[in-house]
Write a structure and sequence with these properties.
single chain; alpha/beta; globular
């Protein structure tokens, strides 16, 4: 097969999946410059850009500035807030909790948990609710589904699946999902077991970027399954924590445009300054004008450097696996 035919095929696949997902992830409305999309079968309307929680809690960003950025994003139309129980030792949730004062009704609040047992997961949920200063979260996600045994642990007797059921029954969560950044096979295993156990996930989060299209591709292997099941697609690592930009092949805008071209309900991106926030809004505003030819050019530029996973180290090394560094979090 000629290289150009290969690249063209990838672009066609990307846009075919996008079209298949139009009912669940397609633009439905807008708030100013921010398009809104449908969150899978939930019917919730969410901003196509989500505000990453990790960056908001970093020590190099003053708390007051983090809160200001959060308010600035929400005031301009971002309504999806990403977070996790373990981000920056809880500082990310604490800061967002302060930022939510007076803003709770405007924000779809998501956080994640690491506990693999019912007891540890529920304990982490209560801690998250306390930090966030809310009585419930809109979306609670099983974090770092990165080992082949993680799905089995989720559905085991006394596992996190039971925590989800109890949390829903008590009104502490509205929807549930799972995340992971390592290998598509682990996500597919989770979906397989969910079907076996007649369990419905509302969302699934994964790396979706210009390198992923060529290497252990969540976009090619997992996204079509999610679209078929009407499970909302949450994209992350569109720039791979900046590592993808070091390939000197693509711009931040191209990275965001590619992720937004997929049937993603939300593309979660880290924002730690005003320039990056403005960039995210510009990408959202202009994403509808991106053509199949534009996507093909982006994929062509990244094909050669993406093949060995060098610019997606979260797939190939343990450096991004926080639960591997802290196995005590698993319970």
């Amino acid at each position: 097969m000629e290289r150009r035919d290969f690249i063209g095929g990838l672009a066609a696949l990307s846009l075919t999946v996008r079209n298949r997902g139009s009912e669940q992830g397609g633009q439905t409305a807008s708030h100013g410059d921010m398009p809104y999309r449908t969150l899978g079968r939930t019917g919730e309307k969410v901003s196509c850009i989500g505000l990453g929680g990790y960056h908001l809690g970093q020590s190099g960003l003053p708390e007051a500035e983090a809160i200001r950025l959060f308010h600035a994003a929400v005031d301009r139309g971002v309504n999806f807030s990403d977070n996790s129980w373990d981000y920056n030792n809880g500082e990310s949730e604490r800061r967002v909790g302060k930022a939510l004062k007076g803003y709770r009704e405007k924000v779809f609040v998501m956080t994640k948990y690491d506990g693999r047992t019912k007891q540890s997961a529920l304990k982490q949920l209560d801690e998250s609710l306390e930090r966030l200063q809310v009585d419930h979260v809109d979306l609670w996600q099983f974090h770092e589904n990165i080992r082949l045994e993680d799905p089995d642990r989720f559905f085991a007797a006394g596992g996190a699946c039971e925590a989800v059921a109890e949390a829903k029954q008590k009104g502490k969560i509205r929807y549930c999902g799972f995340t992971g950044h390592k290998d598509p096979s682990v996500h597919l295993r989770m979906l397989e077991l969910a079907e076996k156990h007649k369990f419905n996930f509302d969302t699934a989060q994964m790396p979706l970027n210009v390198m992923d299209a060529h290497f252990r591709s969540f976009g090619k292997e997992v996204v079509p399954v999610l679209v078929q099941k009407q499970i909302a697609v949450l994209g992350m690592k569109s720039m791979g924590s900046g590592i993808i930009l070091k390939s000197n092949t693509v711009t931040p805008m191209e990275c965001l445009h590619y992720a937004l071209s997929l049937p993603t309900s939300v593309v979660i991106t880290g924002i730690d300054n005003q320039q990056v926030l403005d960039q995210a809004f510009e990408a959202a505003r202009t994403s509808a004008a991106v053509t199949p030819a534009d996507i093909a050019k982006i994929l062509q530029k990244t094909a050669g450097v993406a093949a060995d996973g060098k610019f997606e180290p979260f797939k190939t090394s343990p450096g991004f696996d926080s639960t591997a560094a802290h196995p005590e979090w698993l319970g």
